[in-house]
Amino acid sequence: MRTTPLYNIRAGVGYLLLKLAGFEVKDVLDKDNTIHQLTVKAGDSFDKLAHAHGSTVAVMQAWNPGVPGLHPGQVLKYQKASHQTVAGWRAATTANVAMYDDAACAKKLGFALSVIQQGNVPPCRP
User: How far apart are CA 30 and CA 109, in angstroms?
Assistant: First the structure.
């Protein structure tokens, strides 16, 4: 990258996009709001039951507060749910970009952005 400036720019843009991207895994309830019930059997765990019944551990525990451990014969409530990755973007502002560089970066980026917005960008040289 040090010998080819274009690669350095590409790497910088990729790094910036990675930092501005936001990813979060959430438990998302199924559109069907039905509350189901199941009976615990020997050897069951919240993890095993959630996997077998199309739910998540957090959702099952939320429907059964105060159940620290499972015992055969217990009746549990649950709702269908799944883990989903939710993606979003932080605004590509000079302040957000500057968070990943030195303190003077926001001022430099603000100047460069104003030049670009005014259309005063000099032509690129090959």
Answer: 44
The domains of the chain, with CATH numbers, are: 22-88 (3.10.350.10), 91-126 (no CATH)
What is the enclosing helix (H) or strand (E) of 111? helix 105-118
Determine whether 60 is exposed, middle or buried from the number of CB atoms within 10 Å of its CB (0-12, 13-18, 19+).
buried
At which residue do the structure tokens 């019944």 appear? Answer: 53
Look up the pTM and report it.
Answer: 0.55
Task: Please say whether the beta carbons of 21 and 87 come within 8 A.
Answer: yes
Mean pLDDT per 10-residue segment, the chain (126 residues):
74 79 87 95 95 96 92 96 85 74 69 73 60
In this structure, the dihedral spanned by the alpha carbons of residues 39, 34, 80 and 88, taken in order and rounded to 10 degrees, is -150
Task: Give the type of residue at 72.
Answer: P
> Can you tell me the distance from the alpha carbon of 119 to that of 103, in angstroms, rounded to the nearest whole number?
26
Give 14-62 as a DSSP string. HHHHHHHEEEEEEEEE-S--PPEEEE--TT--HHHHHHHHT--HHHHHH
